[in-house]
Structure formats: structure tokens, C-alpha cells
Amino acid sequence: MSLIMNDIKKGIQYAFQTSNNMTLAMSGSGHTAMECAVFNIVEPGESVLVAINGIWGERVAEIAERMGAKVHTLFKTPGGHFTNAEIEQALAKHKPVLFFLTHGESSAGLVHPMDGVGDICHKYNCLLLVDSVASLGAAPILMDQQNIDILYTGSQKALNAPPGTAPVSFSERACHKMFNRKTKPVSYLLDMTHLSNYWGNDGKPERIYHHTGPVSGFFALRESLAIIAEMGLENSWSHHTEIAEYLWKGLEDLGLKLFIKDKDLRLPSVTTIAIPEGYDWKELLAYIMKHHRIEFTGGLGPSVGMVLRIGLMGYNCNKANAAMVLAALEDALKQCRKSKA
Ligand code: PMP
What we know:
With 341 residues, the protein is α/β, with parallel strands linked by helices. Helices cover 40% and strands 15% of the residues. It has 2 domains: 1-231, 3-Layer(aba) Sandwich (Aspartate Aminotransferase, domain 2), CATH 3.40.640; 233-336, Aspartate Aminotransferase, domain 1, CATH 3.90.1150.10. It contains 11 helices and 11 strands. Helix 9 (233-253) packs parallel to helix 11 and helix 10 (281-292) packs across helix 11 (319-335). The chain starts with a helix and ends in a 6-residue tail after the last helix. It binds 4'-deoxy-4'-aminopyridoxal-5'-phosphate (PMP). Residues 29-31, 56, 102, 104, 106, 131, 133-134, 154, 163 line the site of 4'-deoxy-4'-aminopyridoxal-5'-phosphate. The site of 4'-deoxy-4'-aminopyridoxal-5'-phosphate has 12 residues, from helix 2. This is Alanine--glyoxylate aminotransferase.
């Protein structure tokens, strides 16, 4: 099992484009990595800045608040993104120890620009935490080059593994902060002093039992990381972009409006459509599920009632599926129109 875990570590280092030693997979879903990062980096009373432009920032703000951090937020409605100048201003004002940003905002369908953000954070002695659950493997993210201090993802999106494991990596700076705390993290299960030993990252000769890892999930994660390494990250990114562009063109041909107007800011793995006028979005989803057996979703958190969402990622990301989705939508648009005017 230790050898399998070592392979997973190497696979994550490749997928994240990092040489961080403190790289591992959490036993749990994306939320586990989210909580692990916040619980280990932040001490009660410390200031945290959270960028909220969809549900994931909301979640992290709540997690940080629950463990007693002083939470400050940068806010945009779903679909919005933050300029580096806005981020810098907030960092200068609140002097947080940690700044959270979502790379692939799956509730809004937005991929957030990352260039320069890490440098700005370091200028203000702040660590950068990034969520790439919905984007890893679908849109470029380069942990070391982009100076990201903590990056996490989930196993079940573009990586195609079953849910239940969550890759995460910590930079040297992040390790320095989390291993020089005055207080113990609120969670025993997610305490990185134990997890770093469990993953053989602390340099000690012996790995001591900490908890029972999801071994079948680890086997599957190792294979999924091997598949992405064989395919190559660049190929995975360009494949997702190609299928997404095919889908976007098809949606526009149906007369639909994409929720994220700027093509460069669209998340290839999750496409959001503005709810077309004259339709009840719940009826559209129910119709497509009943007659085409395809699950579309509405918005999530603050984007509920604003968008319809289509996920095409990893194994599911291919032209045949995109075409099937377009045909289902075309039919639903014909059948579900409310105002005949
Ligand atoms: N972040 C993002 C961007 C996500 O899309 C998701 C899952 N939809 C999560 C975090 C949470 O991951 P999980 O459901 O695996 O806990």
C-alpha cells in the first residue's frame, strides 16, 4: 500500500505540475481537502480572505468561520471574476494569512485567471489556496509556476476515479506555516502532522497507523493519475477545450446564450447556459431526464435560477455525448416553451 501511495504522490505532482514534497491524497471528497487546507494553515483569530463568486467561496468562508478565523470576503455575483488589482487592494487592507480562490467555479462555469495572483499574495506575506476540483485536467493550472501554496482537487471529475479521494499539495511556505503553529488544528483526522507521516512525507523511517485509508479508492486514483500522465496534461486540456467549443457552438446555434460571455473565461468541463426566456428551467431539466435520460442540472448555491449546467469531463467528455446533449436540448426547447408569443 505504501508503494501505491508513493505512486499516487508522483502522479499528483505531475497533474499539479509541482515538485512539492508535501503532496498526498486525502481520504475523503473535495470538501475534505478544503477543510484540511483551512484547518491546518489557519489558527483561530487569524485573518483569511475568501474570493466568493459562486458556491465554493461561500463554503470556504463558512469552514474558516467555523474554526474561528476572521473571515473577510471579496464578492462578485456568479460569473464574475476578480482583477489582480482588486485582489491586491483587499490583501493590503485585510492582511490575511490565507487567500482562497476557485480556479474552476463549477456553479458559474467560470475558469479564473491565475497569473500573477500567487506573486501578489507573497508580496503581502499571504498564502494562496486554490480549488481545482472541477478544473484539474480540463484547464491549465501550474502549481509551482503560478506560485500556488496549497492546491487541491477531487478524484471524480476530469480524473475519472470514483469519488472518495482528494489530491492536495502544500508548498514549502505552506509547510512552514502549518508546522509552526501555536495551537493544534481542530481536526485530528485532518491534522497534517499525522497525515504527512502517513504518506511518508515527513522524512521519518516509519509510517505509523493514523486512520484506515480508502484502499480501493487509492488503487483507482493511482490508475486515473497514470491515465492522465500517459495522455499528457496538454492533450487532456486541448481535448476538453475542443469538445467544449463544439458544445458551445451547438448551443449558440440553438439560439441559447452562454452564461460566461468571454470564451477565455469559460470552464471547459462545466458549461453554463443562461436560462432562456419563456421557459421554466426545472421543467426543462425534468423533460430531458424523462425523455432523454440525461441529467442536466440547474445552478448551485447562488447560481440557482440563473443557469442550466452541462458537465462534460474526463471519460464523459467526447463529441458523441456533446451531440446527444444538444439533441436533447433542441427537443426540450421545442416541447417546453411557455409563452407562444
Ligand atoms: N469545489 C468545486 C469547484 C467543485 O465543483 C466541487 C464538487 N462539485 C467541490 C469543490 C466539492 O467536492 P466534493 O463534492 O468532492 O466534496
